[in-house]
Design brief:
The protein has about 160 residues and is α+β, with helices and mostly antiparallel strands. The protein is about 35% helix and about 25% strand. It is built from three helices and six strands, in the order αβαβββββα. A four-stranded mixed sheet has the order 1-2-5-6, covered by helices on one side. It has a two-stranded antiparallel sheet with strand order 3-4. Strand 5 and strand 6 (about 115-125) form a beta hairpin. Helix 2 (about 45-60) runs parallel beside helix 3 (about 145-165). The longest helix is centred in the last third of the chain and has 22 residues, at about 145-165. It starts with a helix and ends with a helix.
Length: about 160
């Protein structure tokens, strides 16, 4: 039995699959004086989880950047949606009051190699966070903050990133 056609077909499909995959941009996230954040969670473990969740969200967003682009973000403040109920022994997060809206402070740069494509400093907030319907893609530990970052990325970063391609 001649295996050459099978080997050739396997090599061809591997090449086609490799060509279909594409490289993506990446994110670099730093937290500037996190001990001064307004509300990144209660206790060291929750604050660490908040940082991990935000970093993971930026990494997911960076997959939408063209190859070679880097989104550098310095998080300068975090105020999670809701407020920790200090009277609850379980430290529950309660939603619903106006000052409880999610808020993120950040500085950013979008680069392609040495070229600076965009930079800025933004204070993100969503005062209507409880009035907006959650989408199916709104999941994970920081739903409201993730949606806030998605909106920011779509309006502030994605248009610049795709114009350079």
């Amino acid at each position: 039995m001649n295996r050459l056609p099978l080997i050739a077909a396997a090599l061809l499909s591997a090449c086609l699959f490799a060509g279909a995959a594409h490289a993506v941009g990446r994110a670099e996230v730093r937290y500037v004086t996190p001990e001064k954040f307004a509300d990144a969670g209660f206790g060291a473990l929750e604050k660490e989880r908040t940082q991990q969740a935000l970093t993971a969200h930026f990494n997911r967003l960076a997959r939408h950047l063209p190859d070679g682009q880097v989104l550098r973000v310095d998080i300068t403040d975090v105020d999670l949606a809701g407020e920790v109920d200090s009277f609850s022994m379980h430290r529950l997060r309660v939603m619903g009051q106006l000052p409880d809206a999610p808020r993120l402070g950040l500085k950013f740069e979008l680069r392609q190699g040495e070229q600076l494509l965009a930079q800025g400093e933004d204070q993100l907030t969503d005062l209507m966070y409880l009035e907006r319907r959650l989408n199916r893609r709104d999941d994970g530990p920081l739903v409201y903050e993730g949606r806030l970052l998605d909106q920011w990325f779509d309006t502030r970063i994605k248009t610049v990133a795709s114009a350079v391609r």
